[in-house]
Amino acid sequence: MSMLAGKILVKNHSNSRANTNEGEFAVLILSEDGLIRDCNEAGANLLGGLPKNLPRLRISRLLPKLAKIDLIKGERTNPYLRFLSRIGHPFEVVSMSGVHFAGKLFFSDVEDCGLHRLIVMIQPIYQENTLH
After folding, report:
1. Under 8 Å CB-to-CB from 48, ≥6 apart: which residues?
2. Are 120 and 30 within 8 A, CB to CB?
3. What's the N-to-C CA distance of the chain in angstroms?
4. Residue 2 needs a FRET pair 20 to 30 A away by CA distance; which of 44, 74, 109, 113 works?
C-alpha cells in the first residue's frame, strides 16, 4: 500500500437513513484515466486482492455507471460526480467476486508526487431492495 493509501483510514458513521456496515469505507486511489492504483484493506477486500497483483483494472469494472461518465473535468473531479456524492446517490457496486450491492460514493482530488489522483470512497448501503 502506498504512503497516500496508508494515510486514508476512514471509519463508517451511520448518520444516514440506510443501515451500513461497521467496517471501514473502501478507499480506492485512481489515476486520471480511471485505473485503480492503490487501495486500503477494505478496498482490497472489494477487489479480491491488492491492485498491484491485478491486471490494469478500471474503476468502471466495480462501478459500471462510471463507464459513461468522465471522472475528471478540467483539473478536478467531475462536478456531476461531486453532486451525486453530496446527495447520497446510491451507485451499483460489483465486487470482483460478482456480488452486486449499493454504495454511496465520495470523491476527493489529491496531488501525489506531482500527479493528480482521484480518491473514491465507497460506503456499502444495505437496503431491503437491491439494485438490478
Report:
1. 54, 95, 96, 97
2. yes
3. 33
4. 74
55-82 tens-digit pLDDT: 789 999 999 999 999 999 988 899 999 9
d(CA 126, CA 114): 38
Joined together, the cell numbers standing for residue 126 give: 444495505
Q: Is the pTM of this model over 0.85?
A: no
Task: Give the three cell numbers for residue 114.
Answer: 506531482
Q: What would the DSSP string read from start to end of 22-78?
A: SSBPEEEEE-TTSBEEEE-HHHHHHHTS-GGGSSS-BGGGT-GGGGGS-SEETTEE-
Cβ atoms of 92 and 61 closer than 8 Å: no
Instruction: Say if CB 17 and CB 1 are below 8 A apart.
Output: no
Q: Spell out the residues 6+ positions from residue 5 whose beta carbon is closer than 8 angstroms to its own.
A: 27, 29, 38, 39, 40
What is the spatial distance between Cα 31 and Cα 37, in angstroms, rounded to a whole number?
A: 7
Give residues with Cβ within 8 angstroms of 121, minimum separation 6.
Answer: 10, 25, 26, 27, 28, 105, 106, 107, 108
